[in-house]
Write a structure and sequence with these properties.
Blueprint: E1 2-4, E2 41-44, E3 51-55, E4 58-62, E5 67-72, E6 80-86, E7 90-98, E8 101-107, E9 113-119, E10 124-130, E11 138-141, E12 144-149, E13 152-157, E14 163-168, E15 173-178, E16 184-189, E17 195-199, E18 205-209, E19 216-221, E20 227-232, E21 237-241
Protein name: Serine-threonine kinase receptor-associated protein
Keywords: Repeat, WD repeat
WD repeats: 209-241
Length: 251
C-alpha cells in the first residue's frame, strides 16, 4: 500500500460533515496497492490487501491473506502495526464508522459472507451479521452500513450493527445507496445493466435508469441526495439527477 501527501479530501457520497481538510486520504485497489492522497510517496505499507479504511490517525488494511491490520501512519515516518487480527475469510471492504469502530466485510470458504464490528480501543470483535453467499458493495452512509448480498439489501446501524431494514429484491444486487432523507435507495444488478430506484417503505421499484452497457457494481448518492453516481463494467461512471427541477447543469 502506498501513502501519499495531500492537502484536501472530498469523498463523494459521504455525509455532509466529512472532514474536507483531513490532510491525507486513502484508496483500496484489487492490484494490492492503496494510495494515501496524491503527490510524493510518504511511506509504503507492506500488506496484501483488497480494501482499506482511513480514520484520522490510523489506516486499516486487509485482503486475501485474511489478516486485518490497523496501522499508525501519521505520528511516524515509519508506520507500525498497532493491532492485527486473524479473520475467517477474505476481506473485501473495511469501513471506519467512528474513531475506534471498524467494520469489516468478508467472504468465507463456507460460501457465506459477514460483516463484523471491531472495537479498536478494546482490541476485540463485538458484533457480527451473517450475509449471503455473495458480497457486493458495502458502504457507510448517513449513519448506516449499506450492504448488497445475494438478492438482498441490508441497512444496518453503523455503530451498533443492529438491522434497521432489509429487503429481498428478487434479483442479484451488486450495489446499493440510500438518499439523503432515507426514503429511497438505488441499486445495481449483477446480471443486467439497469439501475433501480426503490421505496424504503415497501421496497417496490419506483423507477429504472437505463444507459449503461454493463452491470453496475458501484453506486453512491451525493451528500444532498439530489444526484447519484454509478460505476459499470462498461468502463464509465455516470451521474443521474434524482430530484425534480433544475440542478447544476440539468434544467
Amino acid at each position: 500500500m502506498l501513502a501519499w501527501d495531500l492537502t484536501a479530501v472530498d469523498r463523494f457520497g459521504q455525509d455532509d460533515d466529512v472532514e474536507r481538510e483531513r490532510g491525507r486520504g486513502e484508496s483500496g485497489a484489487a492490484d494490492m496497492h492503496g494510495t494515501l492522497a496524491a503527490g510524493d510517496a510518504a511511506f509504503v505499507l507492506a500488506d496484501q490487501h483488497d480494501g482499506a479504511g482511513v480514520a484520522a490517525m490510523r489506516v486499516a488494511t486487509g485482503g486475501d491473506e485474511r489478516k486485518l491490520r490497523v496501522w499508525a501512519h501519521v505520528a511516524s515516518d515509519e508506520p507500525v502495526v498497532e493491532q492485527e487480527w486473524d479473520v475467517a475469510g477474505d476481506i473485501k471492504a473495511l469501513l471506519w464508522t467512528e474513531p475506534n469502530t471498524l467494520v469489516s466485510a468478508t467472504l468465507t470458504d463456507a460460501a457465506s459472507s459477514e460483516l463484523r464490528w471491531w472495537d479498536v480501543a478494546q482490541q476485540r470483535a463485538r458484533h457480527a451479521v451473517a450475509l449471503g453467499a455473495t458480497l457486493g458493495q458495502v458502504s457507510a452512509e448517513r449513519g448506516w452500513i449499506v450492504a448488497a448480498s445475494d438478492s438482498d439489501v441490508y441497512f444496518l446501524d453503523a455503530e451498533t450493527g443492529e438491522t434497521v431494514n432489509k429487503f429481498g429484491l428478487g434479483y442479484p444486487v451488486s450495489a446499493a445507496s440510500v438518499n439523503a432523507d432515507k426514503t429511497r435507495f438505488v441499486t445495481g444488478c449483477a446480471n443486467d445493466t439497469w439501475i433501480r430506484l426503490h421505496s424504503m417503505d415497501t421496497g417496490e421499484v419506483l423507477d429504472t435508469f437505463k444507459g449503461h452497457h454493463g452491470p453496475v457494481h458501484a453506486i453512491s448518492y451525493s451528500p444532498d441526495g439530489a444526484l447519484f453516481a454509478s460505476g459499470s463494467e462498461d468502463g464509465t461512471i455516470r451521474l443521474w439527477k434524482a430530484t425534480p427541477g433544475p440542478y447544476g447543469l440539468w434544467t
